[in-house]
Amino acid sequence: MGSGTVCLTFDFDAVSLWISRNMLTPTPVSRGEFGAVAVPRILNLLSERNIPSTWFIPGHTVETYPEVCREIVAAGHEVGLHGYAHENVGNLDERQEREMFCRIHGLIGDLEGVPPRGNRAPAWDLTPHTVDIMIELGLLYDSSLMGNDYSPYYVRRGDEITVDTPVGFGEETPLVELPVSWSLDDYPHLEYLRLPHSILPGLKMPGDMFRNWRDDVAYMLRDFTDGVLVVTFHPQVIGRGHRMLGLERWLDELSQMGVAFDRLEGVAEQFLEGRSYGEYSPRYGRSR
Ligand SMILES: [Zn+2]
What we know:
It is a single chain. By secondary structure, the chain is α/β, with parallel strands linked by helices. The protein has eleven helices and 13 strands. The strands form four sheets. Strands 1, 2, 3, 11 and 12 form a five-stranded parallel beta sheet that branches. It has a four-stranded mixed beta sheet with strand order 4-5-7-6. The radius of gyration is 19 Å and the shape is globular. The two termini are about 20 Å apart. Zinc ion binds near residues 11 and 86.
């Protein structure tokens, strides 16, 4: 087994997640409230194991739960941008998107006491303007795209995508991407959600989800040099008892596998300094 890094990230959406779905009656709002109840459980687990992590917190959560957010910062975790009310930036025009980013940049900067370094788009979608806005705000990295799994890469701007020509890839920017995946997110695995025309079934055994993630890590350690894997949790999802115990067991496995933990800003900084995370160097097939 080689070496590798796992980045635990927590999207503390709280009530904003339900606002963004226009579900404002007491029960969905209370599902968001549970996120704030779960945060101390997660902070306790991370502190017991001395694991650094990155939290993405909407401005709405910062203003609704200032004490809980201060505890996250006081425990030494990084906080990045995650919209104001968990809005999908695809629904905003450029002026609205810029205003939203300026507002949350101020809120998270005030919370952390230092300028934020990263952004994760709610709903993981960007507009053609988002990359420029992030660079203008001085951010180091984004964590919303899905173009790789074990390797950070530079975000492009100006891609030309049409239905009848090949992709015209735009220029690389200095913004680092720390890629995500729906398969590495607790929400679709675990959360039950009934919508007007569909059901997100969720409610899987947490052990099944963590077995998938253990194998993602095992494959990384076997066939990649110095890979890095980003996983996404939501306090309102992972904070239930059986899931917290599943998380504890998975962290036990990871420490037996010898992985390191880092904040996203730490990975982005080292990538910018030239650390070549996640080179494909397969051991599979070498013995044949
Ligand atoms: Zn979110």
